[in-house]
Amino acid sequence: xxxxxxxxxxxxxxxALAYFSVAVLELVVFLSIFEVVTRYKCWDEIRKGNLAVAxxxxxxxxxxxxxxxxxxxxxxxIYESMLWSLIGFVLLMVAYFLFEFLTxxxxxxxxxxxDNRAVGLIAMVVSIGLSYVIGVSVL
Length: 139
Known about the structure:
The chain is an all-alpha fold. It has seven helices and no strands.
């Protein structure tokens, strides 16, 4: 497989298409995993106009893409970028669970599901902020 793909990756257009394809695939897979671990259904809530869910989900999307950006920017091969972004996603998931654990006064998922926009905003900022730390550290 590498004999077919590697020559394509050596061209700027081929590399751009490959990284774009990986980003879209990772978004679909990683957001599906987030959908399973949250107590609310992201896309159903967004369709209903739940802004807190939209902010939290947007933060996750930004976080996932930002980690992949760091992987690409480091000059890693596409295969290394996929591996490092997977590790970065796992760290982002750990951060998600830590955020829930470190707020014992209320349940993050329940508050976001109830459209608590303050909690949604904090969840978004946590995902975005930690994606920078994770992105720099995974390489």
